[in-house]
Structure formats: structure tokens, C-alpha cells
Amino acid sequence: MQPLENKKILLGISGGIAAYKSAILARRLIDAGADVRVVMTSGAQAFITPLTLQALTGNPVHTDLLDTDAEAAMGHIELARWADIILIAPASANLMARLSHGFSDDLLTTLCLATDAPVLIAPAMNRLMWSNPATAANTKILIDRNFTMIGPDEGAQACGETGAGRMHEPETIRDAVIQFVNNHSLNKLAVPGGSAIPSTAQHHNAANQPSAYAEHHRSLAGLHIVVTAGPTVEPIDPVRYLTNRSSGKMGFALAAAAVKQQAKVTLIAGPVSLPTPSGVARIDVDTAKSMHKAALSAVHGADVFISVAAVADYRVESVAEEKIKKSKDDLTLTLVRNPDILASIAAMPEKPFCVGFAAETEHVKKHATGKLIKKKLDLIAANHVAQPDNPVFGSDSNSLDVYWPGDGHQHIASAPKKQVAAELLDIIAERLATR
Ligand code: PMT
Predict the structure, then answer these.
(1) Which residue's alpha carbon is nearest to atom 8 within ligand 1?
(2) DSSP structural state of residue 195
(3) Same domain flag for 132 and 159
(4) How far is Cα 41 from Cα 63, in angstroms, rounded to an integer?
(5) How far is the CA of 308 from the centre of ligand 1 (A)?
(6) Residue nearest to ligand 1 atom 24, measured at CA
(7) What is the reported pTM?
(8) Do 46 and 129 fall into the same domain?
(9) How does pLDDT run across 258-290, given as a tens digit for each residue?
(10) Burial of 224: CB neighbours in 10 Å, binned 0-12, 13-18, 19+
(11) What is the distance between the alpha carbons of residues 428 and 218, in angstroms, rounded to a whole number?
């Protein structure tokens, strides 16, 4: 049996240069056994013609909301009911903004409002548009409403810039759809007395009702997890900065492992050169202050916050506007404290389950449990970062000692960060269930 056999996929295409890849994507989905119908926005039609998609899928392409002929053939409500999955690729910044605010000003946005099928989104846009706070806020709204993000990827962009925002390759998107189908029992998502897809309200109820939650969830499925990863950089002047050796590998491994456990994941990343794990909504930041701002906004309504980032404790008090000249024998920089992101989130009245990391060079247990108590955390994962054979920072493997209030302790033996991440998530799910 083919992986997408009997699956009805409505492929939404919005305006962007990545639309040319949607033709290949349609083919890849059909090759995997899916029945594909296409809806194109007017912007999409500036990049690729409906005729191409019609020829590739063998089905008429839908473009207009108010077309009487199209409505007579398969009306928009019927189309919304027909789909097992709505997959939007590429999803432009504009489309994501309209979706997040409930617009129904064209056929694609109307279908998304009128469906109870899961909606998967593969964003594609310029890197600055992707990292713009408006897009980040819209992405968060969509994630909170159970939209599933596929990417974006990072690398060279059609506009000549390099960064996060490019659409994943068609094969990666097809694989993410297959993974989604394997992880979700489509058409069986009905909740007692509810609609066919878990609503935001249901999602939040799960987190707000510990006993019901404990009974039904020993996994992280459906929860919104926010992860910070990588270093922060603190500018000294336009060309120099203070930072640390974090590569982001541990945080990215956790984000990827959480998606595998069917969580919705927002990853707030300092400057690292790692690709975005599939299915993760990524927000790029640089300084501790910008990470703090992004984290405060991302954790609203989130279930779990995992602070893996190596946040600079101090920043330069006054950043020089011009490059500092080599005029004296010595130079004094005044540093001031950065906000403690984790502590401020753990102090919120409606705080998520807060997981800290502790990078220690000595007295690991004492320092880690000290941070657990001082920052009022639910769990802390301590790593010994001064081992001669494994500095942890930048390496591919890690081992952790995980502590929680009431003298809880579990050791995760040395293994690739991917495996350590999966084991840590199991502990988090277990601890959440007993809350
Ligand atoms: O990125 P890799 O190369 O894979 O390396 C992984 C890692 C070593 C960076 C990671 O496993 C790790 O230990 N991260 C936490 C590093 C750290 O900054 O530890 P800390 O003991 O200074 O901070 C304790 C906790 O408070 C951490 O969860 C940290 O994210 C958080 N914190 C710290 C300072 C600050 N201003 N704000 C914070 O939120």
C-alpha cells in the first residue's frame, strides 16, 4: 500500500517564487498515492498557471470563490468537506497573516475557515519577512490553532539573500505529510461532543486539567512546546560581539524530537548554522534581549518551555556606534546584566511547565538543583561541560542528570543528542502527567 493511498489532499498554492516547486510537490503526492486537488490564489497564478497543475493532477484547478460554474461543479463547502488534509505550499507571509486573522477574502482562506481537516503549512518568504515580529506573531497564532508548520528551510533564497524562509523541497514536504498521516488517525480525530479536529480550547483544556491530562497523556502529542537554542550574541561595536560556544545542536534535537512526538513546536534560535527541523516554527533572534522578547510572546498559551539556549548573562552597557579604534593599550568594557529569560517565564502567573538546562563545570548536582529552586523550575537538565572527552558545547553527544523538586533525579547516559533529546522528552511527559 502506498503511504498516502486513499488520502484526499487539497493543495493550496499562494503567491511566491516557490510556487514553481508546487507542481513537483503535486506529482510527488500523487506518486505516494494521494488524490490531489489544487486551489490557487491570484498571487500564485502570477508565478505558475492553473493549466500546469490541472495537467499534473488530472483535476480541475480551483481559483475563484465567486465563480458560479465552479460552485455548480464542486462548491467551496463541498471542497472543504472533501479534503482529508489541506496542505498550503508555498504559504506566503500575506497568506499567513490573512489566515491567522480569520480572513475569508478568497477561495483558499475561505476553505481553511470552512474545513475541519488539519491544515499543514509550508512557509516561503524572504528571511527578513520570516523573522519579522508580525510574521512570528501570526505563526504563533496559527500554531495555537493547531495548524502544523512544515519548515521553513534555510539557505540561499531566490531574492539573493541567505537565511531562514525558503520553502522545503517537495520531497521533504511529501515526507512530512506522510509522517503527519502516520502520526494522526485522519477522520478519527473526533472528540466526544466536539468537532472533528481538536480545537484550541480543547488543547488548552488538556493542559489546564491536570487529572484528565494525566489520565490520557503520557506523551506530548498536541501540546505546544517552546524551545530556545543556541547562543546569544551581544554587540560591542558594529563588527565585534560577545558570545559563547553553543552550536544549537541540543536545542534543535529537542525541537525535532518533540515534533516526532506530535507536539507543536516553536523554536527560538540564536545565530546558528543549522537547518530548521521539519515541522518546527522557527524564530531567529540574536541578542538576549531579542530572545527574551520572542520567548515572552511565544509562551502565551504554551504548555512547555524548554530553555536550552546559552544566554549571555551580560551585555555591553553602551554599544559603540563606530568600530572601536586601537588607540590605547587597554580597553575597559562595562557589562550589565541581561534579563533571565527562564526565570521571568517561570514567574508568570499562567506559566508553562518550565525546563531549564544547566551547563556546569563543577559540583554539577549542587549548582543545578540550586538553579532549579532559585528559578522555580519544574525540571532541570544538567550537563557537565568540562569533561575532557566531551565539552558538550558543539559536540554531537551529551549525557544529562535530570532533577526535579522533591529530590527527583534521573540519569540519561551518554548518547547522540537526538537520543538524549527523546529520553528527556519522555521524562518531561512523565513529570507533566504527574503534576
Ligand atoms: O548548543 P550545543 O552546542 O548543543 O550545547 C548545548 C548546551 C551546552 C548549550 C546546553 O545543553 C545547555 O546546557 N544549555 C544551557 C546553558 C546555560 O546557559 O546554562 P546556565 O546554567 O547559564 O543557565 C541556566 C538556565 O537559565 C538555562 O536553561 C538557560 O537557558 C537559562 N538562562 C540563563 C541566563 C539567562 N540570562 N537567561 C536564561 O534563560
Answers:
(1) 393
(2) -
(3) yes
(4) 6
(5) 5
(6) 358
(7) 0.60
(8) yes
(9) 998 888 899 999 999 999 998 889 999 999 999
(10) buried
(11) 9
Q: Are 56 and 29 a contacting pair, CB within 8 Å?
A: no
- How many CB atoms lie under 10 A from the CB of residue 405? 14
Residue 58 amino acid letter: G
Atom of ligand 1 at shortest range from CA of 360: 21
DSSP string, 272-323: ---PPPTTEEEEE--SHHHHHHHHHHHTTT-SEEEE--B--SEEESS--SSP
Half-sphere exposure of 92 (CA within 13 A, CB side): 18
Beta carbon of 393 within 6 Å of any ligand 1 atom: yes
SS3 at position 344: helix
Residue span of the structural domain in which 411 resides: 224-433
Let me know if 354 is a catalytic residue.
no
Which atom of ligand 1 sits closest to the CA of residue 382? 13
Q: Each residue of 298-354: pLDDT tens digit? A: 999 899 999 999 999 999 999 999 999 998 899 999 999 999 999 999 999 989 999
Supply the CATH number for residue 44's domain: 3.40.50.1950
Q: Following DSSP, what letter does each residue of 404-421 receive, concatenated? A: ETTTEEEEEEEEEHHHHH
| C-alpha 397 to ligand 1 mean position (Å) | 16
